[in-house]
Amino acid sequence: MKQQAGVSYTTVDQTYFQKRGLRRYAGVWSLWALGVGAVISGHFSGWNFGLANGWGSLLIASIVITVMYLGLVFCLAEMSPALPHTGAAYSFARSAMGPWGGFVTGLSENVEYVLTPAVIVFFIGSYMGSIFETPTEMQPLWWIGFYVVFIWLNVVGVELSFKVTLVVTLLALACLVVFWISAFPHLDFSRWAMNVGPGGVELPEGNGPFLPKGWVGVLASLPFAVWLFLAIEQLPLAAEESVDPKRDMPKGIILGMLTLIVSAFMILWLNPAVSGVGAFALGTSGEPLLDGFKMIYGENIAKLLALVAVVGLVASFHTIIFAMGRQIFSLSRAGYFFSALSVTHGQRKTPHVAMIIGSLLALAVMMTLWFIFGEEKGGAVIGGTLLNMAVFGAMFSYFMQALSFILLRKNLPDIERPYRSPLGIPGAVVTMVIAAVTLYYQLTGDPAYTLGVFWVAVWFGIGILYFALFGRHHLILSPEEEFALQEREKANPAP
Questions:
Q1: Residues 356-411: pLDDT tens digits?
Q2: Which residues cross the membrane (predicted)?
Q3: Which parts of 18-160 are beta strand (E)?
Q4: Which fold has domain 2-491?
Q5: Nearest to 281 by CA among 121, 476, 45, 52
């Protein structure tokens, strides 16, 4: 057993890593699809709640959040090929801040990747129940069914998983493009997109102020603008399954971000401006894209249009299950979680144990809330509190990843960097500032958010207690751990 800075490393033989092997397959376009697919459901719904503060408020908030994500993406484009490990955020923070920093960052991402698929499958179940007219009490069967199908697709093999990711991502983008084209003949921007007045009231004739709630409305819209890009950061989790991560990872994540920027501002411009829809109505809609389609094509094909919305949800559900498995796998392989969770399938070389356990945990949380609070209130808690918990975990991890970028530039300047961020340290600082401001307004702007933060704190407390008492004494020299130790020794040689 090896001692190092308050932690201990357990010696393992080669069979340990043979049981935890991954298979390389992904190229640039597979990585692009993984990043875009994870985010795309946020273009179908979620972003629109910011319209309650006025279209102009959400536009400015979206520009600010775009700047934050550009800073984050360029940080990741530099760090992921320099540290091409499945651990992604955890491995970046581990190399920059040591085992505790890596573990806390990993915990925050774990909240995001376990709970986000649960929220998405809840919305999928709601759509499917409406389409096929199944009773509300049957909702859990839709959740279980979709988890079973998409875990199976992810377990069968990385080749199939990435092919499915590419197909569903292209289908989701195609749905959005069809909407953009269909919307143009039906636009009346000043009448409908600008129909929110001071205090958030509806203006029947439109032509309202650009910022009906002033700059406070812009700040309040920041958390909703996050939905336009949330989860693009998962792409580096595929580093050990990329054929050439040093070449392909920067290209994949930057191309993905550019695609999402175009899609985000197209939907923000067109959806509220469709005649008969409007920013005021969309500000409380759970199905903004579907509302736009109904106005364009009529109610008669509502069920077909609902299937269109499901495509976007399925794209994100599938890709975030992929990310969840890799995130749990990486922390487990290094001993931060129980090492049994990192065993991969003997033939398929996919982290099936991590995906199954993570999904069972999410389903257990959903079922508990559903049966404790009842169908109506339980759905509100799943769609609200769990979602808030996932966003909190994501924003905290953004702050930590940007901080890791700065510390790696400062403390490990000589590691090989196949790609260097054009925004450098200033870009990372801006990302940290915007992430911190957004977190603040999530905490102060949504009373339901307090409950979510409480449960995140409980999860952090359990995780930190486990790591302090057990985990830190049983770490394993996985690739990211070995890299961190070696590079720190090079940068700070013993006298």
A1: 999 999 999 999 989 888 877 777 778 778 887 888 899 999 999 999 999 999 99
A2: 28-49, 55-77, 111-128, 140-157, 164-184, 214-232, 253-281, 301-323, 353-373, 379-400, 421-443, 449-469
A3: none
A4: Amino acid/polyamine transporter I (1.20.1740)
A5: 52
Q: Does the pLDDT at position 1 exceed 60?
A: no
Angle among Cα 306, 282, 61 to the nearest 5 degrees reads: 120
Cα separation, 329 vs 113, in Å, equals 12
Q: DSSP labels for 395-448?
A: HHHHHHHHHHHHHHHHH-TTS--SS--SSHHHHHHHHHHHHHHHHHHHHHH-HH
Model confidence over 268-307: pLDDT tens digits? 999 999 999 999 999 988 788 888 998 999 887 877 888 8
Q: What are phi and psi of 211, to 5 degrees?
A: -125, 80
45's tokens: 């719904």
R_g over Cα of the chain: 22
Q: What is the rounded average pLDDT of the residues 247-262?
A: 97
Distance CA 89, CA 75 (A): 11
Q: What is the residue extent of each domain of the chain?
A: 2-491
- Residue position matching structure tokens 């080669």: 14
Cβ density class 312-335: b for 16+ within 10 Å, e for less: bbbbbbbbbbbbbbbbbbbbbbbb
| Cα 314 versus chain centre, distance | 14
**Cα separation of 317 and 325, whole Å?**
12
Q: Does the pLDDT of residue 2 top 90, yes or no? A: no
User: At a CB cut-off of 8 Å and minimum separation 6, what does 112 contact?
Assistant: 231, 390, 391, 393, 394, 397
